[in-house]
DNA sequence: GAGGGACCGTCG
DNA sequence: GACGGTCCCT
C-alpha cells in the first residue's frame, strides 16, 4: 500500500511546506503519525514522512483497478510527486548558498529546513490567491475547501481516521468552465467570499472567453511557464482581482519563476526588520508600485537566482504558526529607523450603488491603463 | 501618476 | 480595528 522514497527532511519538510500558505487544499489527517491528503482530478495522494523517508500512497475512486494496474498508478503518483515538489532541485545546496550570501538566512536555516516551493496547478493557484487579499491562511483554506465542495463532484470518500463513522469527502479543484457561470458570484457571496466572489467568477469567465473552453483555458495558463516573467505577469494582471502581489505569487508558485519575490505587508516588515529597508515597523504604510519594486529588487539582490524560494523560508519562519520554535526577529540586531506612529484615519462610508455593465470593453481599458503605469 | 478610501468577513 | 490586496476615483 504505502510506497517509499528516500528523502531527508532537509530536502522536504511536509508540515511546513504544505501548511505555509502556498497551497490551501492539503488535509491534515491523524493525530499521532500525521498524514497529508490531496485530491487530484483522478486520485487522492496520501503522504507521510520520517527523518529519512517520504511515504506515499495512491487512492483511486470506486471501481478499483485490478492489482496488476496498481504499480502503474503508484508510478504515476511518483511522477507527480517529483514534479509537484520539484525534487530535482537540491534544496540543501540552495540553503548553503543563501546562508553564504545572507547572515539573516544563516541564523534560521537549521530550524527551518526543508522548505521548498511547490509547483502547483496554475488555475488553482490563481483562484486561491485571488481569495488571499486582506485575508489569512485559516480563512483562505476554508474558502478554497468550500469552493471545491460546491463546484466539483466528490471523487471519493474515506472514513475519518479519528472518527471512522464520519466519511471525509474528497473534491478536486473545479475547472474554469464551472466557475465562469454567472450564478457563481452570488453563490460565492453566500458562502462568505465577500467582494472576492465577483473576482473569481469574472476571472474564470475571462479565461474561457479569451482562451477557449475545454482545457484550453488551463493550458493557456500552464503555457505561461514558457513565457518570460514580464510577459507572464502582464497576462496575469489582466484578470480581475489580480494585482502585482497575487500575480507574483502565481509566477513563483506555479509558473516556474523561481526568482520572483512577492511583496506583501509581511515581507515588507521582514525587509524593514532585517534588510535595512526604510520604513516603519509599527505603522502601516501604503504599498506603492515604487516601494514594491524597491523591496523586490533588494531581496532579489540578496538571494539571487532562487530568491522566491528563499523568501518562502523567511516567510515561513516568521509565520505565527511556526513562531513557537523561535523567530528571527529577536536575534538579529539591525539599525532600525525610529517608529513614526501615524494612526490611520477612517472615514464614514458612503452608500454605493452602481456596478459596471459588461466585461470585455472595460477590461481592455483597464489593461491599457495598467500597461501604461 | 500618486494617494487614499472602500470592500467582505473573522477574530481580536 | 487589523488582516498574505485590489479597484477605482480623485
Automatic annotation (TrEMBL):
The yes or no answer to whether the keyword Lyase is present is yes
* GO biological process: one example: nucleotide-excision repair
GO molecular function list: 8-oxo-7,8-dihydroguanine DNA N-glycosylase activity; class I DNA-(apurinic or apyrimidinic site) endonuclease activity; damaged DNA binding
The protein's location, in the record's own words, is: Nucleus
Q: What is this protein called?
A: DNA-(apurinic or apyrimidinic site) lyase
The HhH-GPD domain is annotated at: 131-319
InterPro entries (UniProt xref): DNA_glycosylase, HhH-GPD_domain, HhH_base_excis_C, OGG_N, Oxidative_DNA_repair_enzyme
The organism of origin for this protein = Mycena metata
At the highest ranks, the source species' classification is: Eukaryota, Fungi, Dikarya, Basidiomycota, Agaricomycotina
Q: Which SMART domains match?
A: ENDO3c
Q: Which Pfam families match?
A: HhH-GPD, OGG_N
What family is this protein classified in? Belongs to the type-1 OGG1 family.
Q: What is its EC number?
A: 4.2.99.18
Q: Which UniProt keywords apply?
A: DNA damage, DNA repair, Glycosidase, Hydrolase, Lyase, Multifunctional enzyme, Nucleus
Q: What does the record give as the reaction this protein catalyses?
A: 2'-deoxyribonucleotide-(2'-deoxyribose 5'-phosphate)-2'-deoxyribonucleotide-DNA = a 3'-end 2'-deoxyribonucleotide-(2,3-dehydro-2,3-deoxyribose 5'-phosphate)-DNA + a 5'-end 5'-phospho-2'-deoxyribonucleoside-DNA + H(+)
What CDD domains does UniProt report for this protein, alphabetically?
A: ENDO3c
**Record's Gene Ontology CC terms?**
nucleus
Amino acid at each position: 500500500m504505502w510506497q517509499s522514497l528516500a528523502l531527508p527532511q532537509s530536502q522536504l519538510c511536509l508540515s511546513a511546506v504544505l501548511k505555509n500558505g502556498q497551497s490551501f487544499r492539503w488535509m491534515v489527517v491523524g493525530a499521532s503519525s500525521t498524514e497529508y491528503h490531496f485530491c487530484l482530478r483522478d486520485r487522492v495522494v496520501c503522504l507521510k514522512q520520517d527523518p529519512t523517508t517520504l511515504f506515499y500512497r495512491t487512492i483511486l475512486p470506486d471501481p478499483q483497478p485490478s492489482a496488476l494496474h496498481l504499480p502503474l498508478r503508484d508510478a504515476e503518483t511518483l511522477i507527480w510527486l517529483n514534479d509537484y515538489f520539484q525534487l530535482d532541485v537540491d534544496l540543501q545546496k540552495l540553503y548553503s548558498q543563501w546562508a553564504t550570501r545572507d547572515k539573516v538566512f544563516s541564523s534560521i536555516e537549521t530550524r527551518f529546513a526543508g522548505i521548498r516551493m511547490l509547483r502547483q496547478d496554475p488555475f488553482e493557484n490563481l483562484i486561491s490567491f485571488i481569495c488571499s487579499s486582506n485575508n489569512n491562511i485559516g480563512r483562505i483554506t476554508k474558502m478554497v475547501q468550500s469552493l471545491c465542495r460546491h463546484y466539483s463532484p466528490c471523487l471519493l470518500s474515506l472514513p475519518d481516521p479519528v472518527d471512522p463513522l464520519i466519511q471525509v469527502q474528497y473534491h478536486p479543484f473545479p475547472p474554469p468552465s464551472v466557475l465562469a457561470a454567472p450564478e457563481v458570484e452570488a453563490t460565492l457571496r453566500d458562502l462568505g467570499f465577500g467582494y472576492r466572489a465577483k473576482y473569481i467568477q469574472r476571472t474564470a469567465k475571462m479565461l474561457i472567453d479569451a482562451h477557449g473552453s475545454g482545457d484550453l483555458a488551463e493550458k493557456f495558463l500552464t503555457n505561461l511557464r514558457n513565457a518570460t516573467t514580464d510577459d507572464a505577469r502582464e497576462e496575469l494582471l489582466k484578470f480581475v482581482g489580480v494585482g502585482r502581489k497575487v500575480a507574483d505569487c502565481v509566477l513563483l508558485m506555479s509558473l516556474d519563476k523561481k526568482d520572483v519575490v512577492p511583496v506583501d505587508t509581511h515581507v515588507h516588515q521582514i525587509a524593514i526588520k532585517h534588510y535595512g529597508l526604510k520604513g516603519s515597523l509599527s505603522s502601516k504604510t501604503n504599498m506603492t508600485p515604487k516601494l514594491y519594486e524597491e523591496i523586490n529588487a533588494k531581496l532579489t539582490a540578496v538571494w539571487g537566482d532562487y530568491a522566491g524560494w528563499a523568501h518562502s523560508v523567511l516567510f515561513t519562519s516568521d509565520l505565527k504558526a511556526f513562531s513557537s520554535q523561535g523567530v528571527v526577529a529577536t536575534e538579529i540586531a539591525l539599525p532600525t529607523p525610529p517608529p513614526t506612529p501615524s494612526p490611520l484615519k477612517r472615514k464614514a462610508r458612503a452608500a454605493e450603488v452602481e456596478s459596471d455593465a459588461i466585461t470585455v470593453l472595460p477590461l481592455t481599458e483597464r489593461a491599457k491603463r495598467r500597461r501604461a503605469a
